[in-house]
Amino acid sequence: MDTIIFKEQIKAGAYDRKFLALYPGEMLEEQHARYVAAIEAFEEHFGPGEIFLCSAPGRTEISGNHTDHQHGEVLAAAIHLDALAVVRKTECERIRIISEGYPQIEIAIQNLKKGIGVKEVSSEDEFVVVTPDPAQFGTTKALVQGIIAGFEKRGLAVTGFDAYITGDVPVGSGLSSSASLEILLGGILNSGREEKELTPVELAQIGQYAENVYFGKPCGLMDQMACAVGNAVHIDFGNPENPIVEQVELPLAKEGYCLCITDTKGSHADLTSEYAAIVQEMKAVAAYFGKEFLGEVQEKDVMNNLSALREQCGDRSVLRALHFYRENARVREESDALKKGDLLHFLTLVQESGDSSYKYLQNIYAPANPQEQNLALALQISEICLKKLGRAEGKATQEGSLCTPETGRGETGTGAEFAVRVHGGGFAGTIQAFVKQAQCEAYRKQMNTVFGENSCKILRVRPCGFDILDNLT
Question: Is 373 helix (H, G, I), strand (E, B) or coil?
Fold first, then answer.
């Protein structure tokens, strides 16, 4: 559709049904302005004419903390915060991208076929792509090249396009701004193909490949999968080449709850070794049994060899391995609780997930820097605040099943009435809280007071992954 017509129709409300499916209702006017501004920015750089609009969501991890990279199970969800692109396909063998606030990058598609850089031969020896110099790790350009290479490794032709990209997934917040961008780029290359389009699972795998090989970050597949599939999803990575993906309903609004994420503004600098240590230590336990990943080892075998594992791998490695097995079991139980509509039991399990990450996975703060414990402080403040709010609500309503000051759990024993946990990789970054809607604004205000304005965001689960604006009528 032409840029001028698109802007007129957005302003006239022609796409409001789409916007209300993707974003909270109170954000409708904001999204009108956001989309129109993105089109105008595209026109400024690339000129008016035919375009399409598309977006890909960020994600929130609900359970399965550091399980995906060991071929475990996770529960995650796409969120309304997203990356938005205004795109024009071209006949040129180049891709030009301008991200809001950054200079234009340009990639000649054929460069990947000229033997520049380090060659990588696919396992079938049928296709050769090249990876950028490691000096380019961490750049958007390298990420785009990785997405292109992911398509080419599958023998799929890549066509040129121009794009203006803007996003509201905060960078470094644990909401996967990089995975959102990867799925957005993959979706653009996947759209309008004459041959069969790739599935969301395949787009996620390409995104992970780009981030691992080109961007230089050894992530698992959870982030890309949640962003690509949409809604809340239970994912089993037992076979990462063919993961089992099941969408589940997360009826927070229906049950009177909201999902909050607080960015504690902790620095991620010098934490690479901490993240890597989790992977290395879990793999060390697996290696004792001649395996590469914990998902290939039975929990009973670990339990039957604790003394030898402690001696060879160390206590922390064993604790992290045991977290992996218990967390996997929790993911399955949480998924079952949601299917049964038992939200309070689900919240109890989410809280247990957070406790396990704190005590056994030990990714709440870096031992080398004990004076910086943003996540621990955020978790403690959350529990104090939510218990206090629960007591106040109990006095006001005279209902005995509300939060008690001692435990934060219902006196009837049916489960937690709130849950707080570390969110994502840990050590810095964000925490997650499931909060009653009546208490949400007071909680958000408290967290913003401690960690800064707009540090606490209220998230809505997005029902789809990559999407083109005019696909939903």
Answer: coil
